[in-house]
TrEMBL record:
<dbReference type="InterPro" id="IPR045113">
    <property type="entry name" value="Rpb7-like"/>
</dbReference>
<dbReference type="Pfam" id="PF08292">
    <property type="entry name" value="RNA_pol_Rbc25"/>
</dbReference>
<dbReference type="GO" id="GO:0005666">
    <property type="term" value="C:RNA polymerase III complex"/>
</dbReference>
<comment type="similarity">
    <text>Belongs to the eukaryotic RPB7/RPC8 RNA polymerase subunit family.</text>
</comment>
<dbReference type="GO" id="GO:0006384">
    <property type="term" value="P:transcription initiation at RNA polymerase III promoter"/>
</dbReference>
<keyword id="KW-0240">DNA-directed RNA polymerase</keyword>
<dbReference type="GO" id="GO:0003899">
    <property type="term" value="F:DNA-directed RNA polymerase activity"/>
</dbReference>
<protein>
    <recommendedName>
        <fullName>DNA-directed RNA polymerase subunit</fullName>
    </recommendedName>
</protein>
<dbReference type="Pfam" id="PF03876">
    <property type="entry name" value="SHS2_Rpb7-N"/>
</dbReference>
<keyword id="KW-0539">Nucleus</keyword>
<feature type="domain" description="RNA polymerase Rpb7-like N-terminal">
    <location>
        <begin position="8"/>
        <end position="64"/>
    </location>
</feature>
<feature type="domain" description="RNA polymerase III subunit Rpc25">
    <location>
        <begin position="83"/>
        <end position="197"/>
    </location>
</feature>
<dbReference type="InterPro" id="IPR036898">
    <property type="entry name" value="RNA_pol_Rpb7-like_N_sf"/>
</dbReference>
<dbReference type="InterPro" id="IPR012340">
    <property type="entry name" value="NA-bd_OB-fold"/>
</dbReference>
<comment type="function">
    <text>DNA-dependent RNA polymerase which catalyzes the transcription of DNA into RNA using the four ribonucleoside triphosphates as substrates.</text>
</comment>
<dbReference type="InterPro" id="IPR004519">
    <property type="entry name" value="RNAP_E/RPC8"/>
</dbReference>
<dbReference type="InterPro" id="IPR005576">
    <property type="entry name" value="Rpb7-like_N"/>
</dbReference>
Amino acid sequence: MFVLTKISDLIRLDPLNFNTPLAEGLEDEINKKFANRVIHNVGLCICLYDIEDFNDGMTKNGDGGVFIKCTFRIIVFRPFVGEILVGWVSSCTEEGINIKMEFFDDIHIPKDLLFETCQFVPREQAWVWKNGEYDYYIDTNEKIRFRVEQEIFTQQQPRKPSSLQMSEDPANQEVIHPPYSIIGSCQADGMGLVSWWD
């Protein structure tokens, strides 16, 4: 689920950090720049793991900061296809189930990747797995175990300010896709709500 990724980048050290040790100042700036950011085809950056190397700093005319070339490793959330994860059901719709984790919300299980005999109950906004004589409900805020089937990276384009893109007609509103999302499934033994298998 978590991997170490090596990155080389030019980090700007703010003059306010000149009175702290260099390694601490670089750590703060790297975390500020990368933490909670998605790098395309890499994953969701969590935090700095360690700094492997850095060069002498360089200054630039008109800027009081110092620019330092750094090589460092960062902890990245990127589960592999086939990995089993546990999250919580955030919502149920006719298209499938949306799942959240403590730090990541863009997980979706489409209806065709649920159990074969699952049905959506619009009145209760829940999915029901009809297994023989028993009905197992999948409700919101329940703990669910699922398998990663696919990961989707979406290249983000610059958008207009929100005040300019508001539209009265929902058909004219721009659909915003997350930069990184996961498609999961429940079509295996032991998948589904954790409470079913206790």
